[in-house]
Amino acid sequence: MNETMVEPCSMLFVPADTDRFLAKAGQRGADALILDLEDAVARPAKDAARANIPGFVPRLQASAGVPVYVRVNNEPGLLDADLEAAVAAGANGLLVPKVDTAAQVLRLDHAIGALEARHGREPGVVRVVALLESPLAICNALAIAQSSPRLSALLFGTEDFGAAMGIPSQPESMAVPAQMLALAAAAAGLQPMGLPGTVAEFTDTEAYRSVLMRARNIGMRGCICIHPAQVPIANEVFGGTAQEAERARKLLEFFDASVAAGRGAVAYEGKMIDEPIAVRARRFLERYDALQARRSKARKDAA
């Protein structure tokens, strides 16, 4: 797996309207950073925040050594200017909120393609994470996921979805729509991202870890982080630990030896293992090793 293409476990928000958050953003260990022009920026400060993008994007790319995304405002009067600033600045991708239909993605794809050509960037190089945060979006999740090769992930917007439905952002309320998104993303070959619960918890680390484990168990493979304290937990839950990697290597070593000896399903540590279990272990290790390589490179680049 190309280390530059490995899916991020954690994407950390950095408000684009203040310089002081940039100083340590690249030292938090996130797999990607998101310069936020939307919820983290008050409306009167939108223009000033956008004006920071040309300077902030290359600074973060150089200091953090990880992809830098920009969350744009998906509303008339703001979207076009946000897209222009992000693409011109060399952003690796865009986080686009309030995506409800495939038609929206197609219009966005066309607009980004024109901007790539205008600013001399390779066609299709700017990736898009689509943020689905309404009942309509979840019902359209598969169509959205299949709408454009520019998409890299679908992200579940827990808080806005809860507000739209009038329900609390708790796992028992969010598990079904979150898994609907995860299924649609996986069916289209995209990364499923998000949590079946609140993203706002950063003081109770065990409660946060519990929500992340639920997310992983329904098929999510990463999430956004609104506070640096969330980053190492997200990296561990979605990316795995050294102990998990060692167990997977031993399982595969045993399974491969058994297959070579002519046995397809064998008992290992009290459980039967067969090809699907081995495939899951191989995929886990491929991503784990790629993540470790990229994080090691990012640390060196940031040093």
Describe this structure in words.
Helix content is 50%, strand content 14%. The chain is α/β, with parallel strands linked by helices. The strands form two sheets. Strands 7-6-5-4-3-2-1-8 form an eight-stranded parallel sheet. Strand 3, helix 2 and strand 4 form a beta-alpha-beta unit. The mean pLDDT is 91.
Rg calc: 20 Å
Report how far the terminal alpha carbons are from each other.
25 Å
Q: How many helices?
A: 11
The chain-level mean pLDDT equals: 91
Poorly predicted runs: none
Strand order of the largest sheet: 7-6-5-4-3-2-1-8
The outline comes out as: globular
Largest sheet: 8 strands, parallel
Oligomer: single chain
Order of helices and strands: EEHEHEHEHHEHHEHEHHEEH
Strand coverage percent: 5-15%
Number of strands: 10
Helix content: 40-55%
Cofactor: Mg(2+)
InterPro entries: Aldolase/citrate-lyase_domain (IPR005000), Citrate_lyase_beta/mcl1/mcl2 (IPR011206), Pyrv/PenolPyrv_kinase-like_dom (IPR015813), Pyrv_kinase-like_dom_sf (IPR040442)
Protein name: CoA ester lyase
Organism: Ramlibacter albus
In short:
With 303 residues, the chain is an alpha/beta fold. It is 50% helix and 14% strand.
